[in-house]
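Practice problem: predict the structure.
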Amino acid sequence: MSDKATLSEPTIIKPEDIDPRYNWDRAIPSPGNSAVDFEERVNFRRLHNYRLARTRQAMQDSDLGALLCFDNNNIRYISSTTIGEWSRDKIARYCLLAGDMEPHVWDFGSAAAHHRLHAPWLPQHHCHAGMLGLRGAVPPDAGLMAQAAKEIKAMLVEAGVADQPIGVDIVEPPMMFELQKQNLEVRDGQQVMLDAREIKSMDEIMLLNVAASMVDGTYHMMFEEMKPGVRESDLVAKANKMLYELGSDDVEAINAVSGERCSPHPHNFTDRVLRPGDQAFFDVIQAYMGYRTCYYRTFNIGRATDAQNDAYKKAREWIDASIAMIRPGVGTDQVAAVWPKAEAFGFSTEMEAFGLQFGHGLGVSLHERPIISRLVSFDDPIEIKEGMVFALETYCPATDGMSAARIEEEVVVTNDGCRVITLFPAQELPIANPY
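Answer:
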């Protein structure tokens, strides 16, 4: 039997038919990592069907006939396949969704054979071994890209969409040139994928909530470990260990910033040793089943000065003001307006201050819709919708010229407001190992 529907009468399954809207009268579940027979947890086949339906709907709403994805986040979203974080920067994998056909996946060597055995939701003959050159290590003259472009063109012809534009998310220039040689009209497919990924199902929200719970526990451990003589890198190492023990499939980055390094924010970690009275903030960026966290907390080591407390209070006020704005129908420009201008906290332009008073969607990627910032939201506002999940983060430098406070909360947009899912206490400045 053919794996594609009748092209003249495409069957589009609506996402809401797969995953009905949310029951906000109940708490958002945070189930364990194991599958059990006695309660409903994350249903991964329902998750796959929802994500594929969202992608098909977004493609139908666009003028594209197909999507060709090299971005690992989009490949996982469409096909529910992944092979490990080493592949994230290799541009070695790709996925094609053409017309009404099931997804095709090209994966690294033997991974394709593994998918045929262990990914029964994909037709076996849709799992291909593929390799385009590993970012030029195999030069385009070897012909791998030309061969892949011809294969893709043949599949588009089979699907009846070769005369329609094909959306591509990220691509090496030589591969794009080969697609154009096949007389394919290449368009931006990333915006279509971001449309698809914008509204989360309850399965996705549960995964995001579990991911946040893992960081809740990691911060409790870090809080107990913070004392003079411990290095930023020591805390990063301990956090990595605990997160992987809890089930993380990718600790993407952990910022650990302390003492005089706090202002301006360097967005990294070093081997600096914590000292008494330091203000220190951390960001834990990791994924559970592909769903990411971005979760800042600020602490003081042993004691805090008035300037440090004041900075924390301002950062808390700014984030609380933005959380109070979150509900369906509100524009991102309205949220950004409650945050201070760049000049008010020591920066000359909004570009220089970008990412300090900030909101960004969370999902299979660290940055999804909506993006909230004074840099972009006033000119291009986005409507906040039920089912969005995003992080809100604020930053306030202290008047001592070196300390600073950084707070971040992840929120799920409900039918009449939002739920905060980052639960490590942050209403007041936590003092680790007080004197």
